[in-house]
Design a protein that fits this description.
The chain is mainly alpha-helical. It has one domain. Helices cover about 80% and strands about 0% of the residues. It has six helices and no strands. Helix 4 runs antiparallel to helix 5. It is elongated and about 55 Å long. The protein starts with a helix and ends with a helix.
Length: about 140
């Protein structure tokens, strides 16, 4: 279950990356405008924020499930992923009040950290199962 959720998080994070890159390259929040109030003018930004919220909830859920299952690799992976997502969230919230290359870079680094963390969780899980279970018959 945790491995499937971890893989789902990777897919959601790729979607978040695509929306974020589109926003960064093609959407300009007008200067002097509160980005949070202006957000309704851009479906892409609204989708990015909505998906980011879903990713945050998913990250917290995986951490809770990892703790409940006492799965050390998932506890570590999901905690690191949550730190990356949190960094992206904080930078993204600030980005809405004044676009900056530094904030965009922090968002990208946080996303990268989260993707690596969940990929490591899936990898650690795959190493623990019997190779015969992975064989395609």
């Amino acid at each position: 279950m945790l491995a499937k959720l971890g893989f789902a998080m990777i897919i959601l994070l790729v979607g978040q990356y695509v929306l974020g890159m589109y926003t960064n390259l093609f959407v300009q929040i007008p200067d002097g405008v509160d980005g949070w109030k202006w957000m309704s003018n851009s479906l892409v930004i609204m989708g990015h924020v909505t998906l980011g919220t879903l990713v945050l909830v998913g990250a917290a859920a995986i951490l809770v499930l990892g703790v409940r299952a006492r799965a050390r690799s998932w506890i570590v992976a999901s905690a690191v992923g949550l730190v990356g997502i949190g960094a992206s969230l904080i930078a993204g919230s600030s980005f809405m009040n004044g676009q900056s290359d530094t904030l965009s870079f922090v968002m990208a680094c946080g996303l990268g950290l989260a993707m690596v963390a969940y990929a490591a969780g899936v990898y650690a899980w795959a190493r623990t199962i019997d190779a015969r279970q992975l064989a395609v018959t």
